[in-house]
Each structure stands twice: as structure tokens, then as C-alpha cells.
Amino acid sequence: MDVKGDHLPDAEVVARVLAGDTDAFAFVVRRYEAGLLRFATRMLGSRDVAADAVAESFVRAYRHLASCRDPARLRTWLYRIVANRCKSYLARRPFADVPLDEAPPIADATDNEAAVERAEQLAAVERALARLSPEKREAFVLKHVEGLSYEEMAAVTGERIPALKMRVHRAREALLRALEQLE
Amino acid sequence: MSRTPIDPRIHDALDGGLARDALSPEARRAVERLEQAARLLAAPPAGSLEARVMAAIRRPAPSRLERLVRWLRTPRAVTLRFRPVWSLAAAVAAAAAIVATSGEEPPAFGEHEGIAQFVARFPGARSVHVVGSFNDWRAGTIPLDDPDHDGVWRAAVVLPVGTYEYMFLVDGERWVPDHLAERLVADDFGRENSVVIVRPVRR
Amino acid sequence: MRLAALLLLAAAPLAAQSVRSRLEGRVPAAAVPAVDSLVRTAAGEGLPTEPLVQKALEGGAKGVPAPRIVAAVQLNLSELRAARELLVRAGDVPPVTAGEVTTVAWALRRGLPEPVVERVVAALPRPPRAAALHAVADLVAHRFDPDSSADLIIAAIRQGVREERLLDVSTAAVHEVQRGRTRPEALAAVRRRLPDVPPAPKPARGTVARARRPAPPPPP
């Protein structure tokens, strides 16, 4: 595999794929899968379901790559596809038919106090995040976990920036309240 | 119902317009909590999707006819959207009633007992068990049956009235939530349990 | 009185013994002391212990590593504490029953906001409130507004609808949405018909005949 491709700008990778170089799409996957998987996991609450959603999103992105209007904004386009997929899944639940397989990996398997404390904190934050509505959850994760700017968030969600700012504010408040309730 | 909003300077600090030391200790603590939450959530996930995605891309896309056939063959969970879960259970039970019962006496029910019905589709599975807080999460005490080998597994279980969490255990190794259950709850281990509320049979 | 105190003292170490024996062999050995300690803490605070034991057994059954099991049990203990505080705030006189603490913890886990749980608890001065809280949580899980959902269930309670029939009130509202109404319309439609509620689902005779109790656990 051509390692040099890892440094090519998105616009050029997209051009190569559209010109027929299917293998070049692997650069796209490698470059964005961690962020997209993390985003989907936080939205859907399950790593396995998120992996399905993101993998399907990548396949969809490949098949519709020509419709990515601005290849320089590939990242926001991909987040948009994943965000929409998560929205559909959350709206359908609990009627979705998705099996879960492996146990989730944890960062530190050794039995010591720091690992327990960290695991406890993460579990509490996950639980608090799950209490937020999907819109607030999406706003908090895109802003504070994925680090998108408000302009990028507008491109991902289709919402206007003032509305997104309000959503992020409400999400922060809701998350603080939920964290306090779990203390 | 209204809530007192939080100190707006917390938002200013998080949006970058205000220095931390301009905040009250309480507000600073709130800012730190949110930032810590974001850091914890930002842990990168393990594993790569590259192989899976590239394999799917390289497979030729199915023709329209193939896609239609696949759609017709796949059981659509989505059709259940307009039918409540209990009537599905009733439909399944009605179908089961046509099949001759074993001839044994039905169990006598106590005052505080009810029936939980479980139905799931696992074509190709060798065994399916329900495991949950009604059997101390012990596999093997509540098997589902698929007598006609159509991949639809069922069980009707007598349980004390109450609320329980559970999952299916397929082939003794795969944990799968019951997606027909209308109630789901986080299991605190990164997955979701299904929830069943057993109602008294005698009332 | 003294006899009762003596019996209580005798029962405590016996109860502790049985928790350990339930955990051993089913939960990773590394987690057993910590979980045992958390269970004792809960017992000492007058909180229910069974939810904690169940969570540990669940983790063991699912093959979860020890630190994560301990973290989950710790989280559950915090939730039980929060549940009890809520019950006291809502007007229940201490000591609140273990069953009610578990019920309120359930409601919070299913995503009901605390003020809504307090309202429902206050509307039903005496336990059990499990069905009422689950009925509200069912509506919230179907994206109904939490306060409006509580309004409907409290209205049903005030009109004499009791216990698990409240679940049928929620089911009726969900059906209205499936038939095409908006959520506010659905709540209003069901409310207008109170105290009439669609009949509770009854398992078919075939199901009742087939129903079996769980097999006993295999001997150790």
C-alpha cells in the first residue's frame, strides 16, 4: 500500500477515487474512521452498533462520492452522513434489528485503583450523556469531543449557527445536571 | 416547570471568550467537569473498519432485482412499528395454540406471578437462552425453542411479578439484546439490556 | 426488643456470607472483595443490596473485566443513594422501603428527569409506584414530553386507574401516535377517555398452557 498517499490532501484523494482508483478510498477510511466511530459510539451508546453505522456510512460515501460538492470539505460531508444515520437509528429504536457481538474493550485491564476510578468516571459520563436528547447529545459531542467549529457543525447538521450555539449551551447545562444527579 | 439557568460565564469560558480565573470557584468547577467529561469521551476507539469497508466496496453492487429479492427475504423489523409488541406476542401465542400442547397440566399461578413471553429470530443458531436478573444472569435455565426450525425461537416463562433486565445468549457465546422489547436500558458495560415488566396473570 | 437486636446481629454476617458465596465462581476473583465491600456499605446505609449483586453477576456472566464490574457496581450504589434522597425530598418519611428505592432508581435509569419522578411519587402517597413510574418512562422512551406524560399518568391515578393498568394508559397513547396523531393530540385523546383504558393484553390459552418455570440452576 502506498504510504505516501496518507499525506495527500482530501481533494486529491477524492479525485483519484473518482478517476477509478478504488484502493485510494482506504486513505479516506484510515483518516476519518477514529473520529467518526467515536462520534457514532457516543450518539448510539454502543460500539458495535456504531461500527455498523460507520462502516455503512463509508460504503455509502464511496458510492455517492461524486455528489460531495466540495472535496475540500470531505470531513464535514462524512460526519453529515454518519449524523443522519445515527438520527435514523435513534428514531427507529427499539425496532432496529442489529446484533451486538464482542465485549467492549477497555483501556486498562489491570486491577488497580486508577483504572477503577477512570472506568467509573467514564461510565458515569456515558450514562449522563445518554440522558440527553439526541439533538443535545449530538451538539455536545460534535463541539466538545470531535472539536468541530460552528461553521462545520452547520454543514453537518443543516442547522443555523445561532440555533446550534443555543443547543450547545443547553447541552452543557443538561450534562452538568445529569452528572450532578449521578454523584 | 422552570430551571434556574447556570451561570452564563460558564458558556463564555467554554467558548473561549473568558479567562478561567475570572470565574467563581463554583463556575470554574463546572467548566472543569465538562472539560473532563469531554476528555473521557474523547478516548479513541480500538479497531479499524478499513478491511471491512474496502471489502464491501470491492463487492459488485447488487442489481435492482437482487436488491428486491433480498428485501423480500429479509424479515422486516420495521413492519412491527405499527403493531404493538403485545399483539405480536398474542399473534405468536395464537399460532402456538394451534400446535398441539404437550398435554401436561398448565402451571398453577400464584397471586404474584405472571408470564413473560420471549420471541426472537436467530436463523442458524444452535441454541438460544434468555439470561437476566430473573435467573441471576445464569445461562442455561431458560432456553428458547424453535420446534419447526424456521429460525424463530420462543419461550413463555412463569416469573414473579416485577421488572427485569435481560439479554439473549446465542450459541452460548453471543450476547444480543431483545430488539422487540420496547424498553431498553444501558447495562453500564457498554451495551444495552432489554427490560420486561411481568404483570400478574390473575387479575 | 433485645431478641430482635440479637437476631439482627446474627443475620448480618450470615447475609454477608451468602453474598460472597453467590459471587464466587461467577464474578472475577479480583472483583469479589470490592463488590462485597460495596454491598456491605449499601446494607449499612439501609439501601437495597440485590441490585448491586445482580449487576456484579451480570458483569461476570458477560465476561467483563474486574475493574469495570466494580465501577458499574459503584455507579449503581450512587444511583440508589440518589433515589433515596429523591424519595425523602418527595415526602416519604424515612426509612424508605428498599422496594421503593429500587423502583425510583429504575425510573431514573430509564431517563426520567428527577423533578418528574418527584411529581409522580408525590401524587401517589403510598407505595407501590413502580407501574406509575414505568408508565411515564414508557411514554418518554417514545419521545413524549416528560412533564406532559406525568400529567396524563397522574390524571389517570386521580381517576382511579391502578397499578399495572397505568401501563395500558401509556400503551394507548403510543397507539394513537402510531395511528397518525401528534403526541400532544395522543395524550389529550387518551385523557378524554379516562378512566376507560383499553383492556390489558392477556396471554393466549396456548401460551398459558406452554408456560414453564425456569429450570433450577445446575448444582455447583
Structural commentary:
The complex is a heterotrimer of chains A (183), B (203) and C (220). Chain A is built from eight helices and no strands. Chain A has 183 residues and is mainly α. Chain B has helices at residues 8-14, 25-41, 50-58, 64-73, 85-98; strands spanning 113-121, 128-132, 152-160, 162-170, 174-176, 183-186, 192-198. In chain B, strand 4 (162-170) and strand 5 form a beta hairpin. The longest helix of chain C has 24 residues, at 66-89. The radius of gyration of chain C is 21 Å and the shape is globular. The two termini of chain C are 39 Å apart. At the A-B interface, helix 2, helix 3, helix 5, helix 6 and helix 8 of A face helix 1, helix 2, helix 3, strand 5 and strand 6 of B.
Largest interface summary: A-B, 59 and 52 residues
Query: Quick one: biggest sheet of chain B?
Result: 5 strands, antiparallel
The radius of gyration computed from the alpha-carbon positions of chain A, rounded to a whole number of angstroms, is 18 Å
Terminal CA distance of chain A reads 49 Å
Quick check: average pLDDT of chain B?
A: 78
| Low-pLDDT segments, ≥5 res of chain B | 75-105
* Strand-pairing-aware structural class of chain A: mainly alpha
Radius of gyration of chain B: 25 Å
Task: Tell me the series of helices and strands of chain A, N- to C-terminal.
Answer: HHHHHHHH
Portion in beta strands of chain B: 15-25%
- Spans of chain A of 5+ residues with little confidence (pLDDT < 50)? 94-111
**Distinct helical segment count of chain A:** 8
Which helices and strands appear, and what pairs or packs with what?
The complex is a heterotrimer of chains A (183), B (203) and C (220).
Chain A: H1 10-18, H2 25-44, H3 47-63, H4 74-92, H5 113-130, H6 134-145, H7 150-157, H8 161-181
Chain B: H1 8-14, H2 25-41, H3 50-58, H4 64-73, H5 85-98, E1 113-121, E2 128-132, E3 152-160, E4 162-170, E5 174-176, E6 183-186, E7 192-198
Antiparallel strand pairs in B: 1-3, 2-4, 4-5, 4-7, 6-7
Helix pairs in contact in B: 1-2
Chain C: H1 2-23, H2 32-44, H3 50-61, H4 66-89, H5 98-109, H6 114-123, H7 130-141, H8 146-158, H9 165-178, H10 183-193, H11 205-210
Helix pairs in contact in C: 1-2, 2-4, 3-4, 4-5, 5-7, 6-8, 7-8, 7-9, 8-10, 9-10
